[in-house]
Amino acid sequence: CCTDNAEVESFFHSLKADVIRGNTFETSTKLHSKLKGYLNYFYNRQRLHSSLGYKTPVEFEQKLF
After folding, report:
1. pTM for this one?
2. Conformation bin of residue 27: beta by default, left when phi > 0, alpha when psi is -120 to 50
3. DSSP for 3-65?
4. Is the separation of the CB atoms in 60 and 52 below 8 Å?
5. CA separation (Å) from 16 to 9, 28, 50?
6. Residue 49 CB partners (closer than 8 Å, separation 6+)
7. Does residue 33 register a pLDDT over 90?
8. Nearest C-alpha neighbor of 25 from the set 33, 13, 36, 14
9. Which of the 8 DSSP states describes residue 36?
């Protein structure tokens, strides 16, 4: 799909703004833990996505089924 690159770039922009900028990680394990928490809890369950009608991915998927 021609928009795949734009969607991935948007995700990484959000990731950098929400997690990476202004933080330092002493080990790769600490970075991994922070990324896992961001994806599993904030990004998918709390962060509103404009492309989903300002719903979280979890809310959007629940309405499909």
Report:
1. 0.70
2. beta
3. THHHHHHHHHHHHIIIIITT---SSHHHHHHHHHHIIIIIIHHT--BGGGTSB-HHHHHHHH-
4. yes
5. 11, 16, 18
6. 55, 56, 57, 60
7. yes
8. 33
9. H
Residue 58 has pLDDT above 70, yes or no: yes
pLDDT band for position 2 (cuts 50, 70, 90):
low
Q: Which two tokens stand for residue 43?
A: 């990004």
Domain containing residue 53 = 4-64
Question: Do residues 15 and 38 lie in contact, with contact meaning Cβ atoms separated by under 8 Å?
Answer: yes
Q: Specify whether the CB–CB gap between 58 and 41 falls below 8 A.
A: no
Q: What is the pLDDT of residue 1?
A: 66
Counting the structural domains of the chain, the total is 1
Nearest alpha carbon to residue 49 among 58, 37, 40: 58
